[in-house]
Amino acid sequence: MPHLERASILSELTPPFRIARPAKQSAPFVWCSPHSGRVYPAAFLRAVRLDPLTLRKSEDCFVDQLVDEVSALGAPLLTAEFPRAYLDVNREPYELDPTLIREPLPDFANSQSPRVVGGLGTIPRIVADGEDIYEGALPLATAYQRIELLYKPFHQALAALIDETYARFGTAVLIDCHSMPSALMNTGGSARPDFVLGDRFGASCHPVLTAFVKDVLSGLGYSIQVNRPYAGGFITEHYGRPVRGVHALQLEVNRGIYLDEATLTRTRRYTYLKRDLSYLARRLFDEFPQMLHTRAAAE
């Protein structure tokens, strides 16, 4: 199995990501969509117990397309090609599940994080609605292959984009884009807001960024929550270093405002949401850098 999966990865997921670059980067921003990948390796589909539609319930469906105008506006967009059900780059590289891997895990693996315990480690054991992906356990070699061939190249590309942006502008802002189900699972359907902004409770970006995005989206009529239930994952935590001039904000959009969640097809509101996210990007690019500079000088 491991060598067959490696061949599938190399043939179907090379490269493992896409970068939409502007003709000239004019804003100190990098946009990222790590969970909207739609290329499911054939070897993976043969090995799982779930049908393709159920597997796709873990996708941030069409989020990359919702924000793809940012490249024309002056900032790069990095998008994973592989799906989250296959490999989750918004985790530490070795958040591995001991109930999913056959062999004993190495000492450097983080096998006790809340995400692993919940079945959503670097190699997920379940899809978003709680169903097991695999019939049995996986070889450790399979996990290593996905990490080496997909996870590490993705993060190398993201780090390079942030470094290039910082070198050009003296600051860098990462907008990490995700989607969430419209209602909480197993709670009788409690409704969620339109957007959740995650800044690790102020640790991953200057509060002026969070406030600015919240104000723009609220002004467009959307409901917003900050850090609850999502404060930001590994990407936001790992790259956000506001004291060094690198800011990271997780932007989580409610799927119910643009998607039929049963069929995973776009609704009529998709067009309006895409327009509004482009408006947010323009406002950020035009106003935020000077606002941040002014605020930093005052401090």
Structural account:
This protein is α/β, with parallel strands linked by helices. The protein has one domain: Aminopeptidase (3-Layer(aba) Sandwich), CATH 3.40.630. Helix content is 37%, strand content 14%. The protein is built from ten helices and nine strands. The strands form two sheets. It has a seven-stranded mixed sheet with strand order 1-3-2-4-7-5-6, with helices on both faces. A two-stranded antiparallel ribbon has the order 8-9. Helix 8 (207-219) links the parallel strand 5 and strand 6 (224-226). The chain is globular, with a radius of gyration of 19 Å. The termini are far apart.
Please bin the fraction of helical residues: 25-40%
Alpha-beta content class = alpha/beta
Oligomer: single chain
Strand portion: 5-15%
Name the poorly predicted regions. none
- CATH fourth-tier homologous superfamily: Zn-dependent exopeptidases
What is the number of strand segments? 9
Summarize the structure.
This protein is α/β, with parallel strands linked by helices and 299 residues long. The chain contains 10 helices and 9 strands.
Key phrases:
299 residues; alpha/beta; 7-stranded mixed β-sheet; two-stranded antiparallel sheet; 9 strands
Topology (elements, then pairings):
Layout: H1 2-12, E1 17-20, E2 29-33, H2 42-47, H3 52-55, H4 63-66, H5 70-73, E3 77-80, H6 114-117, H7 140-169, E4 172-180, E5 195-198, H8 207-219, E6 224-226, H9 234-239, E7 246-254, E8 259-260, E9 265-266, H10 269-298
Parallel strand pairs: 2-3, 2-4, 4-7, 5-6
Antiparallel strand pairs: 1-3, 5-7, 8-9
